[in-house]
Design brief:
By secondary structure, the protein is α/β, with parallel strands linked by helices. The protein has helices at residues 3-25, 64-67, 90-101, 128-139, 158-167, 184-191, 197-208, 227-243, 261-267, 276-286, 315-328, 332-335, 341-352, 359-369, and strands spanning 38-46, 49-57, 111-115, 146-150, 172-180, 213-220, 248-253, 292-295. It contains 14 helices and eight strands. An eight-stranded mixed sheet has the order 1-2-3-4-5-6-7-8. Strand 6 (213-220), helix 8 and strand 7 (248-253) form a beta-alpha-beta unit.
């Protein structure tokens, strides 16, 4: 089989496997769309100090890309908490949000994140009437200082950006976009993201010319890349995102979410979650950049089964250092972390040097083994 034919066969097989996983994962679900899916409180950083932020996970219709015949991103299990395309009345979104929003005294939580397991700016996923009502509720609360929304780049237009600017005038608004990897070839094979860097750059220009701020998500240890490739991609992706106007970078170490291609290869013994040492090396390389750097990977719904890790002896220190960094931007606890398990991580890197160097052949071999 020539390389072109192999690439086509690999993509077809990856999507076939993912489609089968989704059908199995969705069996017997019973979801109440009248209630919000989940809310959590996490550490944050704003105006030079540590803050608490509230994260709202709305029950939604699902990501348009995930619902397409292309199957969606390989690491994302968010679809399991959605209606998978079944239309939801705008009133459900509004009532979910209001019922939860008014539980909080935002004098203590100046930052809120509003997620809908997809693109908040896509009117097929979040009806315009619901989006406007939700943002107006936020606008009316003087204690909310920062609002974070998420969207794929194709739904970020000048028109919708101007609408958000007007509604949330006086508040800092961040639009999160999952670029994941800067390399189009890697992003296509390892993430199945469905857009190019040029499309990301176009939306970056729109946001950069507005009062809004671009937040870019960068994946750490996607499927199929070695540790060294993943580190290099995270660094390069960050640099390129900052160059085109992203003011915030959030590293997203891959987690183990149910009903994903990541879980499929993990269960087959062909994929392992990232070590904390990997994020530390990446952070050391980008620490000089002017963009605000965050470390994510923990904030999803449905809640992942496993996350980035080291060993049982230093995991607690790793998680504490990440939380402290996100709240203070003090990287010293991360950079000073020491443990013998780093030698195991380095040994893993050595073993990876025997892996097939051509990515498409590598994926083909893994599919054969899986």
């Amino acid at each position: 089989m020539d390389k072109v034919s192999m690439k086509a066969a690999v993509f077809e097989e990856l999507r076939r496997v993912l489609t089968g996983i989704k059908k199995t994962s969705l069996a017997g679900r019973d979801i109440d769309f009248a209630r919000i899916a989940h809310t959590s409180i996490k550490e944050g950083y704003f105006d030079g100090k540590a803050i608490q932020r509230v994260i709202f996970y709305l029950r939604g219709q699902g990501c348009k890309w995930a619902l397409s015949e292309n199957g969606g991103c390989f690491m994302c299990g968010h679809y399991r908490g959605t209606s998978m395309g079944r239309k939801i009345s705008p009133s459900y979104f509004i009532n979910q949000f209001k019922a939860e929003f008014f539980k909080y005294d935002f004098q203590h939580y100046p930052m809120i994140c509003i997620y809908n397991a997809g693109s908040f700016l896509n009117e097929e996923e979040m009806p315009a009437i619901a989006r406007r009502e939700i943002l107006q509720v936020v606008a009316n609360n003087p204690y909310v200082k920062v609002v974070i929304l998420e969207s794929r780049p194709e739904f970020i237009s000048q028109e919708i950006v101007k609408e958000i600017e007007a509604t949330l005038a006086g508040k800092r608004v961040e639009i999160g976009v999952g670029l994941e990897l800067e390399n189009d070839y890697f992003r296509g094979i390892c993430i199945n993201k469905g857009f190019t860097f040029n499309e990301y750059e176009s939306c970056a220009k729109i946001v950069s010319k507005s009062d809004l701020h671009l937040l870019t998500y960068v994946t750490v240890r996607p499927l199929f890349l070695t540790t060294e490739e993943s580190i290099d991609q995270a660094i390069t992706t960050t640099q390129r995102a900052v160059e085109v106007g992203s003011e915030i970078i959030s590293f997203e170490p891959t987690s183990l979410q149910e009903g994903t291609l990541v879980e499929y290869f993990f269960n087959a013994g062909l994929y392992s979650l990232p070590w904390g040492w990997e994020i530390i090396e990446i952070m050391k390389a980008v620490n000089h950049l002017t963009a605000e750097i965050r470390i994510g990977g923990f904030e999803f719904f449905p809640i992942p089964k496993e996350h980035i890790h080291n060993c049982t002896f230093c995991n607690k220190l790793l998680y504490e250092a990440i939380a402290q960094y996100n709240a203070t931007k003090n990287s010293q606890p991360l950079f000073s972390l020491e443990c013998n398990c780093k030698q195991r991580w380095e040994a893993d890197i050595e073993r990876e040097k025997n892996i097939e160097t051509d990515l498409i052949f590598r994926v083909y071999e893994m599919l054969e083994l899986g």
